[in-house]
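Re: weekly structure request thread

Next one in the queue (363 aa):
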Amino acid sequence: MITSILILLALTVPAGILYTRKSPQFGGRPSSEDLDRYSRSPQWKDGVFLNRSLTTMDVSLWSMPGLLKEFLSGRKNRQPPEPLIIERLDSDQFHDGKDKFIWYGHSTVLFRVSGKNILVDPMFGPDASPIGPLRTPRFSKSSLDLIDDLPQLDLILLTHDHYDHLDYASIQKLKNKTSEFWVALGLKRHLDKWGVPKDQIKEFDWWEESQLGALRIVFTPSRHFSGRGLFDRSKSLWGGWGIISENRKIYWSGDGGYDSHFSEIGAKYGPFDWGFMECGQYNEKWHQIHMYPEEAVLASQEALVKTAVPVHWGAFSLALHDWTDPIVRFSGEASEKKLKGCYPRLGQIVTVGKEPSEPWWEL
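Done, posted below.
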């Protein structure tokens, strides 16, 4: 959320507006044909996509200077004391025939499910902001190099178009590693501008499904917003994903606040073996678009998740809390509520049935 505030502040000057039109990382602008297509979505009203519940943020133009000051001079514990190491991929171990995943920090996860390699929200870049002077640096070094280790991918899934999930530099390196991008409705224009062939991109509205071999994949609702610049707020959709095979069910919550959709998703598609639940970058001012850790535990239970993996932390400081606050609060609440949690190290290969829970963040 803080990235959106920084971008808005920087782009209110004429030079910033010009920058958005010239710099490729801002993505594509919706054409009249795009807008006509979006208008056929049940989620589209009065020229924007909407959440199912009224969703507000307590952030005004007048409050932004104070927020920016607090962000730039906040607590020293918002970043780890030293760079976090991301383990390099052991290809032989990853392809041993068992379902598994690797979390690379924040919301980037590589899955091996039913023999398919699936990458979700590939943000390997060093910074979650497109504005040079307003950096939100990654906790780990040389993360883009990790893409070189990745296997050929059967599919890339994208939940929404915010910079901490859809990264220009990462997509440029990944274009030749896959021929399938399944994305939230409205993201095709960004990938198209970045050189991804149109026939490799499939857009999804909420509850729409498709098959990838034996895998059934569904785009699920979340409570959030979208946009990469001044003029495209909520001009693309946001959501989560369900990945369902004969032997495995995986839920990816996507970014968003707590709402009734978790129970609905659990009833439709659960129970889930693994649930990757947004947990991090929250604040009382934008509580309705980023849930608190305790709510992430509740959401896991309502979605009928058996083993919950908190994500959206461990890579960037995009709010004002300590960098370990999400995992400390989530793990404590999960223990109290008898929810099984999985807390892997960055880059660690996690195999089904061998989910780690050691507190590695206690540096």
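Residues 325-336 form the longest helix (12 residues). The chain is about 25% helix and 20% strand.
Next request, please.
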